[in-house]
From TrEMBL:
<feature type="active site" description="Proton donor">
    <location>
        <position position="328"/>
    </location>
</feature>
<dbReference type="Pfam" id="PF02784">
    <property type="entry name" value="Orn_Arg_deC_N"/>
</dbReference>
<dbReference type="InterPro" id="IPR002986">
    <property type="entry name" value="DAP_deCOOHase_LysA"/>
</dbReference>
<dbReference type="InterPro" id="IPR000183">
    <property type="entry name" value="Orn/DAP/Arg_de-COase"/>
</dbReference>
<keyword id="KW-0663">Pyridoxal phosphate</keyword>
<dbReference type="InterPro" id="IPR009006">
    <property type="entry name" value="Ala_racemase/Decarboxylase_C"/>
</dbReference>
<feature type="binding site">
    <location>
        <position position="356"/>
    </location>
    <ligand>
        <name>pyridoxal 5'-phosphate</name>
    </ligand>
</feature>
<dbReference type="Pfam" id="PF00278">
    <property type="entry name" value="Orn_DAP_Arg_deC"/>
</dbReference>
<feature type="binding site">
    <location>
        <position position="218"/>
    </location>
    <ligand>
        <name>pyridoxal 5'-phosphate</name>
    </ligand>
</feature>
<feature type="binding site">
    <location>
        <position position="302"/>
    </location>
    <ligand>
        <name>substrate</name>
    </ligand>
</feature>
<dbReference type="GO" id="GO:0008836">
    <property type="term" value="F:diaminopimelate decarboxylase activity"/>
</dbReference>
<keyword id="KW-0210">Decarboxylase</keyword>
<comment type="function">
    <text>Specifically catalyzes the decarboxylation of meso-diaminopimelate (meso-DAP) to L-lysine.</text>
</comment>
<dbReference type="InterPro" id="IPR029066">
    <property type="entry name" value="PLP-binding_barrel"/>
</dbReference>
<keyword id="KW-0456">Lyase</keyword>
<dbReference type="InterPro" id="IPR022644">
    <property type="entry name" value="De-COase2_N"/>
</dbReference>
<dbReference type="GO" id="GO:0030170">
    <property type="term" value="F:pyridoxal phosphate binding"/>
</dbReference>
Length: 412
């Protein structure tokens, strides 16, 4: 998307504003399918948690993707798109048996990541095929908070507990139809990822009725100019060869699954914010924008880098700014960042704002959630209205306190 188009959208819909380019989403989806075109049965399940606007989910459904969900709410949202329940996989963590049973009634693929629930579910519902999430004890990912396959992680059943899984299957006569892993996000080292896939192949060989192996995702995308990213094409060559060899040995053409989220939508997203104040202090020049970590929490939560450009003055002389928000505590998007000269009322563009940005937004400080716009074939569509005070109050119940109690509170 060009700067002029983004500026027009900011003027039309106001700021802060999320904008998603579906051309980029399609390009990333096609890039991944092409990289694994040598696999007979390939299925990409878009990770709903990355960006869950229903219009984005409908777009992925039309592309042919399945949907990867982690909660019953994401399952229900996915079903609202009209997708076949069989194209949804549900991979929760630490949820109740009751939630898993409710999801099972909806006809989606269940993925269980702990022995306790696996055994109870198998005793009660041995007729329902189940995938199991394996923890391969591989440290992968760009941040400790998003590395989920190591030995101390809360996710998955340890590879050392596979004999326990087999005992549960033998005792309950349940059907394990899939093996799953997810080692973490921002994976750059292909060899580390492939080492984890070899572990998964070894586990899958120990079960007779496997229909698919889900290798998760977490592929790294570039966050800044000239940044490095996962070599998807090379991974496709190497993993395709190993997967096809496994199918031959297993005696069955099973399905290779991925659950990409960030890889598909991160670069497609732009977050637009207006500069309220340029503030010079004794040590720093602050650019205060009309947003905060209530709208984009990744820099504060994960120390994530988002490239920031001044689309109102792209050819301006570069200066150094700390870009900060309007939340009443430390609220920093970027420190001492080189950006084209900023003036009040300028629009700043935060790049790579498609994944885990709006989906993690909140109403902290009672601020409204931003609007969302989707670009399809060059045309803009408003896919979420900006909130109002009525939206914030919608589910709040105003109760009348007894007058005596109110006086006691006041006097206290």
């Amino acid at each position: 998307m060009e700067n002029t188009q983004l500026l027009e959208l900011a003027k039309k819909y106001g700021s802060p504003l999320y904008v998603y380019d579906t051309d980029k989403i399609s390009s990333q989806y096609n890039r991944l399918t092409t990289a694994f075109s040598g696999v007979k049965n390939l299925k990409l399940n878009y990770a709903v948690k990355a960006l869950s606007n229903i219009n984005i989910l409908r777009f992925f459904k039309d592309l042919g993707a399945g949907l990867d969900t982690v909660s019953i709410q994401e399952v229900l949202l996915s079903l609202k798109t009209g997708i076949d329940p069989k194209r949804i996989i549900y991979t929760p963590n630490g949820v109740s048996l009751q939630e898993i049973e409710e999801v099972a009634k909806l006809g989606v693929q269940i993925n269980i990541d702990n022995l306790s629930i696996l055994e109870i579910f198998g005793q009660k519902h041995p007729e329902i095929p189940v995938c199991v999430r394996i923890n391969p004890h591989i440290m992968a990912g760009g941040n400790s908070k998003i590395s989920v396959g190591h030995i101390d992680s809360k996710f998955g059943i340890s590879i050392h507990q596979v004999p326990h899984i087999k005992r549960v299957v033998e005792n309950t006569k349940m059907n394990i139809n899939g093996i799953h892993m997810h080692t973490g996000s921002d994976i750059l080292d292909i060899d580390t990822f492939l080492r984890a896939t070899d572990i998964l192949f070894d586990v899958a060989k120990q079960f007779d009725n496997i229909d698919f192996i889900d290798f998760g995702s977490g592929f790294k995308v570039p966050y800044k100019p000239n940044d490095i990213s996962t070599d998807i094409e090379q991974l496709g060559i190497q993993l395709t060869e190993r997967f096809n060899e496994f199918c031959t040995e297993y005696g069955k053409e099973i399905t290779l699954m991925f659950e990409p989220g960030k890889f598909l939508v991160s670069e497609a997203g732009s977050f637009l914010a207006k500069v309220n104040v340029v503030k010079q202090t004794t040590s720093t020049v602050f650019a205060h924008v009309d947003s905060g970590f209530n709208h984009l929490v990744r820099p504060m939560m994960y120390d994530a880098y988002h490239h920031i450009t001044n689309i109102s003055n792209p050819q301006g002389r570069d200066r150094y700014y700390s870009v900060v928000g309007y939340i009443c505590e430390t609220d920093t998007f970027a420190s001492n960042r080189r950006i084209a000269e900023i003036s009040e009322e300028d629009i700043l563009c935060f790049h790579n704002a498609g994944a885990y940005c709006f989906s993690m937004a909140s109403n902290y400080n009672s601020r409204y959630l931003p609007a969302e716009v989707m670009i399809v074939n060059g045309k803009d569509y408003l896919i979420r209205k900006r909130q109002t005070i009525d939206d914030i109050l919608q589910n709040q119940e105003i109760v009348e306190l007894p007058k005596k109690a109110a006086k006691q509170v006041i006097s206290a």
